Each structure stands twice: as C-alpha cells, then as structure tokens.
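Quick one: structure tokens for this chain, please?
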Amino acid sequence: MWHRLFLGIIAAAALAACEPVPDLSGPPTTTVRLAGAVTLTGPAGYCVDPVVTKPRQGFALLAACAAMTADETDAYPDLIALITVQVGADGSGAVAGQEDAFGAFMETPQGAALMSASAIGGPIAVRVTQTAPNTVAVYTEDIADPGISGTQKQAWRLFTDVRGRLVTITVRGLTDAPLSQSASRALLDAVVTALHSANDLPSSAT
C-alpha cells in the first residue's frame, strides 16, 4: 500500500513543481550538494528525489527511500513525510544571533504571508513558534487545501543559517498516515541535525 500511495504523492509533488513525473528506476541517493556548497543528507530512511530536486536552484525534495525503488517490499521509515529544503541566496542568512526577532516576525501577518508565498500551496496560519541557537521552527496550518494532494494541512518549517545562506526546511505528513505535532518535530530535528553535521555546524535541535 505504501509504495503506490507514496509514488502517487511524489508524482503530485512533481506536477505541483511543474516537473515531469520522475522515473524512479535508478538507485536512490541520500546526499546532495546544493547551491552555495550546502550539503544535505537525508535522515535515516530518506533519500533525495532525483527529478524534483534542483541543486543549482538550492532546492531538494526528500522522501522515503523505499518509495524510490522497484522493490515494493522495502521497509519504510517509522515517520513518513515529504521533506523540502530550500537554500537561499548568498548572504541571505538571517537567523543566527537574532533568533527571537526572526521568530517574532514569523508570527506577524507579514511573516505568515512570506511563508505562504514561498511554499507550494496557499495562505497559512502560524500555530507555534520555537527558537534555539541558529534555528527558528514554526508550526503552521494551511487555511485552504495543501498544494500537494495527499499531504497534511499541518507542517513544520525550520529556518537556519548555513554557509551564510538562509536554509528553510519543511516537513509535511500524509493524510493517510498523519504525523502529530511532536512526531513531525522529531523528524524535523533529525533533518536539521543531519544538515548541520554535514556542514560542520553544531547541532541546535531541541
């Protein structure tokens, strides 16, 4: 069941990003180098989507490795979600040293509008904001249906600076296997911990 469901959602993500439906016949990879020499490594059980990911544009989509193989018996991770990572322009870093101010801005209508404009989908509502050294995490809920069919309205977004660039991570569960706020946050922490480790930064996951 998971294999066909996840392939359908990956196809929907490809269409939402105006990309061809991916051919997942090749071996999956867990690591990709994005713009600005930012290295991204997926958490356990997650691989880089080979088509939707655009390294030169600083964008990556991570999904369950098992969804990218021809073997429908491959095991899926305990926490299943779509994970997107966007690396900003050189000099766009805005979190480290001003986490509280950045988090406060994300709670404003302007901050919510900025997150809505940068995501696949429409307007969002901010539910929770959390800060730690070099990270601001925001739990959001889509006001309308999410832009990718089959995914939850709720999502965690995390902002962090890597190599002078603002990096945005989004974790969104599936409607058929929804993630709780805490479970989604645990997966988000695994992603940012792997990101910081791959780029020789101290971990700041909470």
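Residues 98 and 134 are 8 Å apart (CA to CA).
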